[in-house]
Design a protein that fits this description.
alpha/beta, 13% strand, 36% helix
Length: 343
């Protein structure tokens, strides 16, 4: 929702009579539950042999929420909730034998950090200047102003090496993707120097764990600086297709990067019941199977406890059963590029 109009639309919605709100929500849900597709043989090549589900996480903890537009933002507690739920999420994925892609903020690979001689966090890094950034509230101060510059034991919302180890040790073979070092905005007016520094710092932090990612996700969908991504050796970008498609296939861009489009976020449909939201996701799995295209769902580990137990876990179970029946595949962002195609 547009960050300027959002509060006004919410206020207008709240004064509508309850029957009208229920009717409008029902119409919205029915429309949003019709899987649209974008498939062009000249662009995408052959369809897949089997429809495929991709699940990707934006693994950010406090970093992903510190400059969020909402004034009610409690980014530290959001990061702590993400930390607390990670073992539950990983157990659910392992129980179903499903690997996901974890687009991870680079700072989470650190176990500690300190301030420079000038008192700034990560003083050696170029940073975004205060200004107007879509979906961010960063009008003043320093981009790293909230970084505690301590360690994982004192400020566990800002560091996550133990969680990274947990993902690495999972037997299902998860993929790690890059999500910048500090959840930085990469679209205009972010300069190439800032983007290069964010990517370099993130890749250096990941390398300490023996990880060399191939895929990248733009924080808050802030697409830009594609040349920097390519120079960093990241060959795949997660992209948001907007209204063009819910189900599609990877696209090779003119610059050589692969674009793997998302289909929907798990939190889509705040005015619908949890059961209605789960039913919608199952319809997209069915449609991907039928159309032999990709359904790509993305989420944050900080989703609510109800969403975790009543949407995410049953969704995994449904995908696992459809896979066991031979109806679909489940793949990571990296692996979906090379899935078998129809002849």
């Amino acid at each position: 929702m547009n960050s300027v109009l959002g509060p006004h639309l919410k206020a207008a919605w709240s004064i509508l009579p309850a029957p009208v709100r229920r009717l409008a929500a029902g119409v919205e849900r029915r429309i949003a539950s019709i899987p649209s597709t974008y498939y062009d043989p000249a662009v995408h090549g052959p369809r897949l042999r089997r429809g495929t589900v991709v699940i990707s996480f934006d693994f950010e903890m406090a970093w992903g929420w510190q400059h969020r537009v909402s004034r009610e933002n409690d980014f530290v507690n959001t990061g702590l909730r993400e930390r607390a739920q990670m073992p539950v999420i990983l157990r659910a994925l392992e129980a179903c034998g499903i690997a996901a892609t974890w687009f991870t903020v680079g700072h989470l690979f650190l176990d500690r950090c300190t301030r420079g001689n000038d008192g700034r966090a990560h003083a050696d890094m170029l940073r975004l200047s205060p200004g107007r950034y879509r979906l961010y509230r960063f009008d003043e101060g320093d981009w790293f102003q909230h970084d505690p510059c301590t360690d994982v034991h004192r400020d566990p919302a800002w560091y996550g090496p133990d969680l990274v180890e947990m993902i690495l040790k999972s037997p299902v073979g998860h993929e790690f993707g890059c999500h910048t070092f500090s959840h930085a905005y990469l679209g205009p007016p972010c300069t190439e120097d800032v983007a290069d520094g964010e990517l370099r710092a993130s890749l250096e932090a990941m390398a300490r764990f023996g990880i060399r990612p191939e895929s990248f996700s733009f924080p808050r969908g802030s697409e830009g600086n594609f040349a920097c991504i390519s120079r960093a050796g990241l060959g795949i970008v997660r992209a948001h297709a907007g209204r063009q498609a819910v189900l599609s296939l990877p696209v090779r861009r003119a610059d050589g990067l692969w674009a793997v489009h998302t289909s929907t976020a798990i939190d889509r449909g705040a005015r619908w019941s949890l059961e209605e939201r789960l039913a919608r996701l199952k319809k997209f799995v069915d449609a991907a199977s039928r159309e032999k295209l990709v359904f790509h769902m993305y989420l944050h580990p900080s989703l609510s406890a109800d969403e975790l137990t009543r949407i995410f876990v049953p969704f995994l179970d449904y995908c696992a059963r459809r896979r066991e029946s031979g109806d679909i595949d489940v793949a990571t962002v990296r692996d979906v590029i090379t899935l078998p195609r129809e002849h």
